[in-house]
Amino acid sequence: MRIGKRQFGIKLKITAAFSLIFILLSFSFNLYCYRKIRMLMISDNDAYLIARAKTLLDKTEVLPAIIPLPDQNTSIRVLYHSAGKPIVVFQSPGIIKNIRTPAKTGVTDTLGMRVAYVVSNNEDNPAELMLVRSADQLNGNLQYLLLLLFTCSLLSVLLAGLIAYILSFYLLQPVQRIINAAKLINAHKLRDVIPVKKTNDELQELTETINTMLVRIDESLRQQQNFFASASHELKTPLAIMRAEIEVHLSKPGLTPALSNLMESQLTEINRLQQVVQEFLLVSQLKSSGITLHRQQIDLSLVILRLFNRFQTFMQQKELSTDIDFDQDAETFLVIADDDKLNILLMNLIENAIKYAVPGTPISCAVKQSNIKDYITISFKNAINEESFPTENLQNAFHRETIEANGAGIGLWLVKEITNLHNGKFSIESSNFFFEAVVDLPTTLYPGMDL
After folding, report:
1. What does the alpha-carbon distance between residue 300 and residue 334 come to, in Å, rounded to a whole number?
2. CA 20 to 30 Å from 107, out of 66, 304, 362, 377?
3. Cis peptide before 64, with omega less than 30 degrees from 0?
């Protein structure tokens, strides 16, 4: 199964997780720091206002009235109590007139102003002083502090996320090396394909585990391939003996027609079994890359005519006709191929066309000059019962469209593999109630080919 395009890789996930955790920790820590610093700044401002108010109070007298000048941007109210009633001695102009005298000493906030109220302990000078100053400067400093902490947190998160992404890129390079090595794995190379680095961490353990798993898979595949090869070799001899015995009996005179027909039917089935055994042996060789081609020049016209003649009995059973077209404009019908493998290739294509053709319809075979230079094209076309059917899996080994379908499902796969071995091209198509298989094979030697 092909994996789709990755939307969120591990690097992005690590970066996102790290950034989220950093955001939570950073903002929580900065919020805590802001609250602590805010309390300190307010406390420091309170202490300053109380100290300044006491300094002014020490210079103040109510009888006779001596009033010190307030600082710039501050207002004062000087008063004393007589018979329980407050008597204002002096009051600065402005917003202070709207502010009530606090009930107790200390600093309070009202109307956007900071109010410090102090009382003299001198019985000869029972003065009271209320110092009023705007809270804008303190609030501005607090807002600036909050903005600074927020900006620093945001920049820290972005910088930490970038660093995390860069670090994850380098930290995940061993994983990427494992991925790149795993892409090279195939059925012919399963042992020690991923190099193990002695890092004594999880990556080393992962690499060793994958290599161990590949060894087990390789052993299992080798057992299957050995079984295919052994079974095929074991079956070839008894089938050859049975075929020879039947052919000998058929050559004897005096056989009744019924017995002759029976033995000919058995001979046909034995030939079919021999073909299946040969295909299974070829599958084993292809899976283990133990196949060798014996290339030679072969006349396609002779091979195709001989094979269609061999399948006449099966075609007559389905009332199929043959339409073979050899293009007279073709430069040659000679191909460079292995005779046995070419026969298996063409037999599978003809048999596939016969098996799925609509009874009473023709099977078309066309041999013509290919669009590829120094190649020739062989196509097989047959009618089917449906307008089209999916073909993407038909070239996979042991694939069958339905469980009830006849055959082992290796015919078209063998065609593809044999074609690739000959440096050819193979394609299939289904449309307009027809199925077509097309093979392009070389007509001349290509680099690396030996006859």
Report:
1. 6
2. 66
3. yes
| 434-442 vs 375-383, strand pairing mode | antiparallel
Nearest 5 degrees, angle CA 213-CA 216-CA 221?
125
Helix axis angle, 339-356 to 300-310, nearest 10°:
50
Non-local (6+) Cβ contacts of 133 within 8 A are: 49, 73, 74, 75, 113, 114, 116
Residue range 305-332: mean pLDDT, rounded? 87
User: Which among 373, 372, 295, 298 has a CA at the least distance from the CA of 335?
Assistant: 298
For residues 217 and 161, give the distance between their C-alpha atoms in angstroms, rounded to a whole number: 41
Taking residue 304's Cβ as centre, other Cβ atoms within 10 Å add up to 20
Distance from chain centroid for Cα 345: 36
Predicted TM-score of the model (pTM): 0.48
With H, G, I as helix, E, B as strand and everything else as coil, classify residue 327.
coil
Question: Given a cut of 50, is residue 96 above it in pLDDT?
Answer: yes
Q: Does the pLDDT at position 408 exceed 80?
A: no
**Nearest CA-CA partner of 379 in 312, 313, 438, 307:** 438
Residue 332 has pLDDT above 70, yes or no: yes
Our measurement of the distance from residue 288's CA atom to the centroid of its chain's CA atoms, rounded to an integer in Å, reads: 30
Please spell the DSSP secondary structure of 276-294, one letter per residue.
HHHHHHHHHHHHTT-----
Mean pLDDT of all residues belonging to the chain: 82
Q: Residue 213 is which amino acid? A: M
Q: What is the pLDDT of residues 159-196, one digit of tens each?
A: 888 888 888 777 777 777 777 777 776 655 666 567 77
Does the pLDDT value for residue 397 go beyond 60?
A: no
Question: Which residue's entry shows tokens 């799925």?
Answer: 356
Distances (CA, A) of 101 to 46, 80, 134, 192: 17, 11, 16, 89
Dump pLDDT digits (tens) for 411-449.
788 888 888 888 899 998 988 899 999 999 998 865 555
Average pLDDT value for residue range 223-247: 71
pLDDT-derived band at 381, boundaries 50, 70, 90 = very high
CA angle (313 as vertex; 310, 319 as ends), nearest 5? 125
**Which residue intervals of 288-409 are DSSP H helices?**
300-310, 312-317, 339-356
Give the number of other CB atoms < 10 A from CB of residue 341. 20
Report which of 301, 310, 402 is spatially closest to residue 351, judged by C-alpha positions.
310
